[in-house]
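User: Quick sanity check before I run a bigger batch. Here is a single chain. Can you write out its predicted 3D structure?
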Amino acid sequence: MVLKGKVVIAQGGGPTAVINQSLVGAALESRKFPQVERVYGAVHGVRGIINEEFLDLTQETTHNLECVANTPSSALFSTRDKPDEKYCKEIFEVLKAHDVRYFFYIGGNDSASTVNIVNENAKKSSYEFRAIHIPKTIDNDLLVNDHTPGYGSAAKFVSQAFNGVDLDNRALPGVYIGVVMGRDAGFLTAASAIAQKFPDDGPHLIYLPEVPFDKEKFLGDVREVYRKYGRCVVAVSEGIKNEDGVPVAKDLMSKIEYDAHGNIVLSSTGALGEKLASYVKENLGISRVRSDTFGYLQRSFMGCVSEVDQHEAREVGEKAAQFALWHNMDGSITIHRTGDYSVDYRLTSLDKVAKYTKSMPEHFINKEGNHVTEAFKNYLRPLIGQDPFTAHMLRAPKVDKILKNI
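Assistant: Done. Predicted structure follows.
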C-alpha cells in the first residue's frame, strides 16, 4: 500500500558534526517519491512538532541543502525534551492534523523511544503511518549498531586534541588531565589513544565509565608514569564512577544540576578535572599540573569532520526514506560492519534500540583498566577517516658535552 501525505524530519539531543547529512539525506531522498506531498522540518525537534513550527524543505534549493549538509550542528535546532506518553500523544495528534504519513527522527536512544511511542499511538488510532529512527550520537552508545554517525568526527577531534596536548606536554613536562564527554560509555574518551605513534606518546592513562574509578590507584598510576617519562598525559571520561556506581563528579559539585532526562549535568563544570589535578599536585608534589574540560568543543568542531562519518550519516538518512517509502516499514536504521572496512544498513525493531545504552566491550579495555587495547584502535581507525596530521620528532644525534664532562 502506498501512503500519500507529508514527511516530517526532526533532530533531537546533542548536535554533531554530521547530523545535517542525515537531515539532507532523508529530505532529498523523500522528495524523489511522488506520494510525498511536502517535506517538513520540525524546528527544535519534538518541541517544534508540538508547537507546529515547521519549515517546508520542499521549497529549499538542493544546492543550499547540500551546503547545510556540510555544516556541523543541527540546522533545524534541537531539544532535550524527553517525551512521555502524554507528550507523544500530542506529537501524534499534530502529525495527524497535518496529514503527515512519514516521521523521521534523528537522535539517540531516547529519540528511538519517542518514535516507538508515537508509532504505537498511530496504530491504536488505525492511522496509516510510518516512523523511522535515524541514529546519531557522539557517545557511540546505541545498541545493535557497530557505531553511530557523529562518533567518528568527535573521535577525530579528541584524538587530534590529545595529539596536540601531548606535544605541548613534551615541550614543557608535567601532568595534564583532559576530561572528555561520555556519561555511561567510554568510546569517545578512548579515542584519545588513536594518534599514539611513539612508545612514550600520551595519553599514558585513560579512565572510562566502564571501570570503577579508584583515587588511590589513579594516583599510583600517575606516579608510575611520571617516574618513567618525567611527564604524564591523562584522558578521563566525565562519567567515571566509583565502586558504588556514583559519578565521581557528583561528589565534587557544590551544586548538582539535572537535565530533562533526570541525569546529572556533567559537562557544565570543570570540577572533575580541577579536583583530580589538585589531588595529584597535593599528593605527588608535582608543580606543573593542568586540566581541561573539552565540553561542547568535541561535538561540532568544523575542522575535524571525518569523511567516513559524513558519508554514513548521509546514507542512514537516505535509507530511512527508502525503508519507509519503498518498503512501507517502521524501525531504526542500524549500521553493521561487514568487512575491513565496509558497512551495511539494516532496519531494526525500535524496541531493540530504545532506552538502553551500549558500553565499551571488555576486550577494548586493558587488564589494568587504565588504557585501551589494539582491538579498540583497529575498531576506531576506519571511522575517523583520513587524518592529514601526524606528529614527527627530531632524530638528529646529540652533540658531545665539553664543559660538563670536565
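The two ends are 93 Å apart (CA to CA).

User: Great, the batch can go ahead then.
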